[in-house]
Amino acid sequence: MPSLAELQRGLRAALLGGDAAAAVAAVAPDRLPPMARLAIYRHHVQTSLTAVLEDTYPVVCRLVDARFFAYAADTYIRSEPPAEPRLFAYGAGFADFLAGFPPCRALPYLPDVARLEWALHAAYHAPAVDAPAAPALAAALAALGGDDTPRLVFTVDPSVRYLASPYPVDRIWHANQPGADPEVSVGLDTGPVHLEVRRARDEAVFRGVPAGEWTLRARLAEGRTLEGASAEALAADAGLDLGAALGALFTEGLLVDFTLTPAREETHPC
Amino acid sequence: MLSMTGRTRARAGIGLRAPHVDEILATRPDIPWLEVHAENYMGGGPALRRLEAFRRDYPISLHGVGLSLGSAEGLDLTHLDRLRALADRLEPCLASEHLAWSVSDGAYLNHLLPLPYTEEALDVVADNLGHAQDRLGRRLLVENPSRYLRFLDSPIPEAEFLAELARRTGCGLLCDVNNLFVSAANVGIEPLDYLDRLPAGAVGEIHLAGHGENDADGVSVLIDDHGSRVRPAVWDLYEAALARFGPVPTLIEWDTDLPDLAVLREEAAVADRRLGAPRDGRHHALAG
After folding, report:
1. Distance from CA of B14 to the nearest CA of A (A)
2. If B100 and its partner were Cys, which of B65, B71, B112, B121 is the partner (CB 3.0–4.6 Å)?
3. Residue in A closest to B73 by C-alpha
4. What is the mean pLDDT of residues A201-227?
5. pLDDT of residue A264
6. Is A41's CB within 8 Å of B152's CB?
7. Considering CB atoms only, which of A9, A16, A32 is closest to B217?
């Protein structure tokens, strides 16, 4: 007889569509054959996890139709089953999976639509933080010496996500909401878009941000220094009003805290 | 905190589901207690904060579905610590998990999967359960699963397996009467004999729910879908359980095709009347 660990590995394989031989050998064949009994469990695993993905990716589901979505979800679940029991954490890799899923090749914008849906989902479930009032943060910053300013690294509201796409995924998303006008068509050549996603008053929302400002925000959120992020933002938009763009970060409550990166080491003079 | 078992009599609560949250918060209906699935409140979003708003008015029972007490590879300690943090924050009146497994080789299979009832499995579950109770600093109630298959090598009857777990670990038991009914039909258990074999003093909670019936190649299979009212035969078995265990806090669960809150409250009211009915001795006749 197999050990418990072996039996569980055998069932795991059978439930994820792999080799069912070990599981079949362990199940009593009364009234129904073992394969039919295992199928009851497999059906639940597949349908319940597919429902989790449908809830997180309703626009993708609508774009490809429910039957195709179930087929894609089944393949994804088999190759990347959940790694832990918090189901809201499941599905982070679905966009990358779709990008490499040959039947989706005709829909090149689909992975970015999925990325937007995941960003909204993740923003909703992100940890809440007690952000300091903008004046308090500004006062703490003002207390720094001016020489330190380039080395500032900000902590951004953990619900915030930045994503850019060559496709107009924002318009695609809006056109596929319940109640949207079915006559609206979205030209795929109306991108690119630069989007900011965050949770506001218990709802995940997104909006378009001009490329220069988006670059500043996205780089700061990645943990780049103020100096580095500013340089990249100006490279993306030479006309960017950097002072105004930085001020908006405070008034919109995006910044939670700051630290200073260590000063650059002096190079030895000889 | 309102006691559910002490001097106040045991009452019937309902499982809290997301579509009912707004209505309950707005109307504060008279519901004795609410049970929540622990894993739904382990993120940082608004869900936990809203649950804490309930916590002020309703005792909360914490029902875990992902601890995988039956995993041969041991518990996911990160998950156990999440459960501990949540329990410490909510101070639940009851905390429960399942006699099942759902994790193997790093994959969480999102199902309460069956165990073979062997000495090896008993050691595994007792170890995991002992560890969990130590870490949580709480007694867990362990629920009997709905079953759709029987393993060839499974020599210990399920009720005895649960009784031995309670003896070894001090855990309590959650007797899901609907699960027992479903398992009895699907894998051939004698339900009244099963109830007799459970240690009555360890049973700290009862679950009730509806089930469906599927036809698999001409063979009837009951499916524990929590998608309808409690069936009459399950109410009968509930009477037998109450006769055996005495009045025990009872929960109405509903997950599929969730109806209006009023329907859940009606079901809970039926359970509540049965809980409060005078009853003597253990071998009470099975109500018709």
Report:
1. 22
2. B112
3. A5
4. 96
5. 58
6. no
7. A32
C-alpha–C-alpha distance, residues A198 and A159, integer Å: 5
The dihedral through the CA atoms of B17, B20, B24, B29 has a sign that is negative
The residue behind tokens 């393993």 is B151
Whole-number Å distance between alpha carbons of A197 and B167: 52
Specify the pTM: 0.92
Instruction: Kindly state the average pLDDT of the residues A79-90.
Output: 97
pLDDT band at A63 (very low <50, low <70, confident <90, very high): very high
Contact B123, B93 (CB under 8 A): no
The answer to whether B197 and B157 have CB atoms below 8 angstroms apart is yes
pLDDT of A240 > 80? The answer is yes
Tell me whether residues B104 and A125 touch, CB distance under 8 A: no
For residue B285, pLDDT beyond 50: no
pLDDT tens by residue, A163-186: 999 999 999 999 999 999 888 889
Question: CA-nearest residue of chain A to B101?
Answer: A8
- Is residue B17 within 8 angstroms of chain A, CB to CB? no
Question: What is residue A269's predicted lDDT score, i.e. its pLDDT?
Answer: 52
Chain B residues touching residue A88 (CB < 8 angstroms): 40, 43, 45
Percent of chain A residues past pLDDT 70, beyond the cut: 96
Report d(CA B20, CA A14) in Å as an integer: 36
A158 close to A252: Cβ distance less than 8 angstroms: no
> B69, B115, B60: which is closest to B93 by C-alpha?
B60
- Chain A residues near any Cβ of chain B (below 8 Å): 1, 3-5, 7-9, 11-12, 15-16, 26-28, 30-32, 34, 36-38, 40-41, 44-45, 48-49, 52, 81-89, 124-128, 158, 199, 202
ipTM for the complex? Answer: 0.93
Mode of pairing for the β-strands spanning B203-208 and B34-37: unpaired
In sequence order, what DSSP letters do the residues of A103-155 get, joined into one string?
Answer: GGTT-TTHHHHHHHHHHHHHHHHSPP--PPPHHHHHHHHHTS-GGGGGGEEEE
Q: Are B96 and B251 in contact (CB under 8 A)?
A: no
pLDDT tens column, B99-143: 999 999 999 999 999 999 999 999 999 999 999 999 999 999 999
In this prediction, residues A219-223 reach a mean pLDDT of 96
Interface with A, mutate which of B21, B149, B256 (most A CBs under 10 A) = B149
| Cross-chain Cβ contact A26/B216 below 8 Å | no
Beta strands in B40-182 (DSSP E): 60-63, 94-98, 101-104, 107-113, 141-143, 172-176
Q: How many residues does chain B have?
A: 288
Prior bond to A192 cis, omega within 30? yes
Tell me the nearest-neighbour CA distance from A233 into chain B, angstroms: 31
Categorize the per-residue pLDDT at B79 as very low, low, confident or very high, splitting at 50, 70 and 90.
very high
H helix or E strand, kind and range, residue B36: strand B34-37
Pick A85's closest partner by Cβ from B66, B70, B214: B66
